[in-house]
Amino acid sequence: MAKRIRIYCDGVEAVAALHEDAAPVTVARLLAALPIEQTLRHLRWGGDAGYIMVSRLADSSQPLENPVTFYPPGTIGFRREHGEIAICYGQAQARSHVQMVGWACNLATLETNAGALLEKIHATRSEGGKPIRFVREE
Amino acid sequence: MKKIEIEVDGVVAEAELLEANAPRATAAFWSGLPVEARLIHSNWSGRTCAFNMASITSAGGLEHPVCSIYPGTIVARPDRGEVLFSYGAAEYRSELGVEYATRIGRLISNQQAMLAVLARMHDEGDKVVRIRRA
After folding, report:
1. With an 8 Å Cβ cutoff, are B43 and A125 in contact?
2. CB distance A58 to A80 below 8 Å
3. Pick from A37, A122, A132, B94: CA 20 to 30 A from residue B123's CA?
4. How many domains are contained in chain B?
């Protein structure tokens, strides 16, 4: 059975399944870092997604597992070089000011209440940052 | 040299229009003033904020097109009716990749205060921009 995380954002809760089989190192590092509580902001270079930076997870030497450049809506991507966790609600790609095509680990997929959470993510573009919390789902 | 006043969140800065660089786009921009619009943070182009301006569409195609948008620079994308201000590292992009825009102006006074208020939009969300002839 897949390990899961629960995400709280501005009054909304959702659960995501972690892709442990495809990304065992990345998932283990994320789980060890939980809980994570930060301000979620909208991507500036990568399109329709919100993100947080977790500096203690930044490690370019970590293997790139389950790699994607485009984030399908409802997926959670992780960029090892920045410790960036991005939740995508529309059309998005792993980009930066120096990279048109970057790579991220497809870390997890939302399973429950995805629509409500993605509305909150979308709202960060017009409303600014929102508090977000990631915890292990028991 | 035509000049404009830009007001965002109580901060007022002056900019000059780059008429020699973009005569059609600056004329179209000037004809649309004064303007009040919702300013939103870009999601593909980096540290830039954008608003829609119908009058800019009359400029037609691009003039001396650029990709990079330096801090304090104002660019327009006439076919999309879009005007952007940069406050940091920025490049005109879309979901398709790097694209081009026309440079139409640059801040000449109170630049740091204006760039700071634009930067805050990443945390604070949309703001209203008012632009008038100076």
Report:
1. yes
2. yes
3. B94
4. 1
Report field, pTM of the whole predicted structure over 0.90: yes
Once rounded to an integer, what is the mean pLDDT over residues B116-120?
98
B47 — contact with chain A (CB < 8 Å)? Answer: yes
Which residues from A are below 8 Å from B89, CB to CB?
A: 97
pLDDT score of A138 more than 90: no
- Report yes or no: A47 and A87 within 8 Å, Cβ to Cβ: no
Q: Which of B 27-46 lie inside 8 A of A, CB atoms? A: 40-46
**Percent residues over pLDDT 90 in chain B:** 99
CATH of domain A4-137: 2.40.100.20
B69/B77 Cα distance (integer angstroms): 12
- The span from the CA of A46 to the CA of A42, in Å, is 9
Find the domain containing B18 and state its range. 3-125+127-131
CB-CB under 8 Å, B95 with A93: yes
* Global ipTM: 0.94
